[in-house]
Amino acid sequence: xxxxxxxGFGICGSFCTHSxxxxxxxxxxxxYTLFPIISDISKNTDTRFGKSDELVSKMTEICGRKxxxxxxxxxxxxxxxxxDAMLICPCTGNxxxxxxxxxxxxxxxxxAKATARCNRPxxxxxxxxxxxxxxxxxxxxxxxxxxxxxxxxxxxDSINKPYSLVCDFAxxxxxxxxxxxxxxxxxxxx
Length: 190
Prior knowledge:
Blueprint: E1 6-11, H1 18-29, E2 33-38, H2 40-44, H3 52-63, H4 71-74, E3 85-91, H5 93-100, H6 107-116, E4 122-128, H7 136-143, E5 148-150, E6 153-154, E7 165-167, H8 172-180
Parallel strand pairs: 1-2, 1-3, 3-4, 4-5
Antiparallel strand pairs: 4-7, 6-7
Helix pairs in contact: 1-3, 5-7
């Protein structure tokens, strides 16, 4: 029996998509060894979509280990604890902008940087209300970076939120599999 691939699973503050991200995490935990990673905002903010301590508890239960929540603890994920890939699900526009501009100020951005510097894929499952506005440039920057892959995106409410894009969470595992093989799933925009 071969060893399971090691996947970093970062959760950022798109609170309304956390339940979908946890469903993806559950599915992936059956086939991969997951290293949960959580952004500061997700770890410390209660919202109408759920309590932060419940999110941490669910991540711990699914992955069998507590989420990494500091830059210091995420840094070894590249060289010392190599991951086969890093998935950010959900990835907010804020996190996307940080990645596009080389800002490493939380556990998720550090884990992505550590993985990328080892030439391993970073997969972005974007969910942001400003994707076709302030973050459109950052999508372009990241799409053109080596070893960066996107879960396919579409508008979730083109009438009321014309700048919003959300990934197709159902395609996350397929995107991950293709990214590990060096390919971007298509179509990228639906």
